[in-house]
Protein 1
Amino acid sequence: MQTGEVLIFNTDKTFTYKSVGHIAESFSHGNWNIREDSLILNSIMPNECFYVFPFIEKCKSSHALTDELIYKTNLECESPASNKFFIEFKNSKFLIKKDSLIHFLANKNCEEVPEKIILHR
């Protein structure tokens, strides 16, 4: 199985995100907006039942997600898929730099220097 991530921007100001790993996959879709030199992403929650992982600013030394950070797309749904997850972008800000998007993970609770994610075209 091939692994990787794809982020697609549509002309109607919507986006689609997909990440595929060896045993699970994640996805998102929503709206994008440009403010000054930054791209802002906001997800639209699906109606289907999935576990939701926020696109959060984690510390490099912390790989575990706590129960407070994991929730379902619909509180009423019974059993979400255990290998497909929805990623929630909530006012996620990326700096636009030439052909790249740079997201700085600036969690004020982290002791280490913020990590950055760079997406290339």
Protein 2
Amino acid sequence: MRIGIGLAAAMLLWCGTGPRAAPAADDFWSGAAKPAPAKLEPPAVPARPTLADLDAFERATAELWLRLPFGARRNLLVSRKAEAFGDYEARPSSVFKPGEALITYVEPVGYGWVPVGTDLHRLGVTVDFEITTPAGKVLGGQNGFLDYGLTSHARVRELFINLTLTLDGIAEGDYVLVFTLHDKASGRSARVPQPFTIKG
């Protein structure tokens, strides 16, 4: 079977404007795996919080983030492309007509940041994809479908990806769309499967 694939990818960011924490060691921000303590305790919430307290919470959140497995917090077939982080409309069905576009909304989680200079942080994510049968036989795909990087004063965590595929000439049946996410900072990868059905 030969599949004609129309491709479109877009990665958008929604960045908060919260305060930045002080720079730390390279191994911390790289996202590289390291031994973790038994429990990570968040800072106590003061009665009258200050920006310094917010900085402390930001540092604790960033440390927790880097201990997460790299992957996707959300991976959804959607009815339209998102315009902002969290602006997704889940598709009610994973059944598509031949030639109908498959739009996927993905929120990567657990990626790292590479320090740039003294006050910048760079993230980078690449995406490959495959179309497989439910048994795992690969029918087609593309490496380097998306390659994105961002340098920011903030360690951006509210990152989302719109990924659109149009499959022409594909027979009716059940399939799996598999995106493989790669974190440039840590070298970690994660496979994100999305079953779907083509039915005329």
Protein 3
Amino acid sequence: MESTLCKVVEGLTFCCFYLLSNKSFRRPRKDWRTGAVGFIWILGTISTYFNITKHQTESPSRLIAATTCNIASVALFLWVLLYTNAPSKRPLAACFSESFPSLIHVDGPFSLCRHPVYFSYLLKWTATSLATDSWLQLMFPVLMVCIYTYTAKTEEEFILRGSKREEYVFYSKKTPMFIPFMKM
């Protein structure tokens, strides 16, 4: 039962992220970094499909944790999209976009962490590693932490060169980058 539920939730999570990401973000100019992240997502998806089919863990507690992480990742992602696409807000730019924000989001999901979309993705990659007994699958959360940290820092450096610098500095001092309630 847990095994089938975990597989269904894994598949639905990937579909949700793919469909909603393509429809919800302002697109940047094409950039090698955007292509690299997309390529790694594709590799991760293929690896997840293979590993969850061939090497799924038998541990009910790990399957439940993986399913919980997947559900939390989608819930957070949907919250961000509903919040930023509200009439009074502005949709987020996709990663590596070089457009200065006209609005710094500081409440809603952004009151928990500065990059809730990346945190939702990290929850998703953590879920994939929990669902399998494959050491290969552990590589993806670690790799994605490195990529999202680089991406977030690049975006923040760009914001700090714009007119919202002081507002963002104040916000970043009181709000963690990724993990809610964990100042780093």
